[in-house]
Amino acid sequence: PKMEEDRPTPKEVYNFRTYLFAAIASAGTATIGYDSAFIGGTLALDSFSNEFGFNTKSSTEVNLIKANIVSLYQAGAFFGAIFAYLGGHYLGRRRGLIVFGTLFILGAGVMLAMNSERGLGPLYAGRVIAGMGIGGISNLIPIYVSELSPPAIRGRLVGMWEVGWQIGALVGFWINYAISETMAESRKQWMIPFGIQLIPAGILITGIFFTDESPRWLIANGKREKGIAILGRLRNLPVDHSYIREEIALIDQAIDLQAQTIGLGFNAPFVEVKKNKSVQWRLFLGASLFVWQNGTGINAINYYSPTVFKSMGIQGTNASLFSTGIFGVVKTVTTIIWILWLIDYIGRRNLLLIGAIGGSIGLWIVGGYIAVAHPVVTANSSESAGGRAAMAFLYIWTVFYTASWSGTPWCICSEIFDQNMRSLGQAFAAANNWFWTFIIARFTPQMFDKMSYGVFFFFATFQIISIFYVFFLVPETKGVPLEQMDLLFAKGLPPRKAHREVMLKLQAMDEETRREVVDVAEHKSGQDFVEDLKKEI
Hints:
Shape: globular
Order of helices and strands: HHHHHHHHHHHHHHHHHHHHHHHH
């Protein structure tokens, strides 16, 4: 299929350098994916339970300890996402990633100090510190990649964030199974999984030194010549090429508009939030997308996958870890399909709708099977036809979720804010993600203990409601330049129709009009330019 471009784009723009920078940045998300996958399996290992005396505690006490271990990471990430606004604003995207990547490595190192003599204190402290690092990374990577990307492949490049996440998760899901199958029970069994999380963070820190700062951030912060030079290298075109001149003109107009309306200072976005209803609406969209994402049940299944598969009748730690590994394979393969063929062709909005419908059906069937068959108390129930069908539908749910609600909300949130609102908007969205992930991670063991199959019905219902949310409130963003996102949110333009009308207008601009756009940058304010386009639409 043909990519949807806002204007004729030279083939040189789609070059290796842009993909490489996106891949290096997205290595940081492998740390997030790895943690979400390995922690539940590692806590379920007999060697870990015996090291810290879980066998001497009641199931209620053990559930509480595990919930605290898992959820402290998300609590740290919540604050890290907020602090990343400071880093992104003052240090830039690239140096901000270096700072928060280093913070994660520090926290991961502290975790390795835990043992039966020192207790779980180093684990608790290390997960808070590492979580703060991850919160900052989750804020800055989508912004950084979106600001590097040409509009037509922005979804694919930001989506590399999701590929990194799922590759990390794949390793995390299988590491515990491999260790439990090949190593005798010992302290090394659970220390190795905790140590491996240092590897992707090290790749991020090392690789980021070979990348460039966001040209949009540089131009907005008074480093215009350097920003233009980097933009030329990223697009593989001379800086006087018409495509580069047009992109610079759009960036200049957007910055001019922000200087006249929002302002370019640190406090300016907070002031703008108070008075600008369009900004308030976009903050609401960014935050609420992650409410619905967590409402799919993904973090309950990710962080407590052994518990989930046990509820479906999978017996034994190794069998549960193997089923979890297959879950990781399905997610990774689907993510590759999502990034190559779905996100920039089908679009963000359609994927969310399709994912919610298919995912809900899958969870209703899984929950219904557990309610009828009671697999936990029925011997070999997972090997029955019904048990195999339920497993199949859980994996089908995984396909629908991964191809839609997994990476798409991050992609949308990296796009919808203006240059000077982007860091704050992404911080707000990322903090909301980690807040709701914390809630899910903290209470999932108790939910399965009290609700059993009702947990699946709970998340299936959430997905049904999200269909109406997306249909009426979420506009499509694919192919729209970052500097012209305001047009999607023009007053009186219904979200479900906004993309078509905006793209028709942008594509209708002929070559002469595009030359005028470059000239306008020198003679007309960005506010006038955007307002004129809004009137025409």
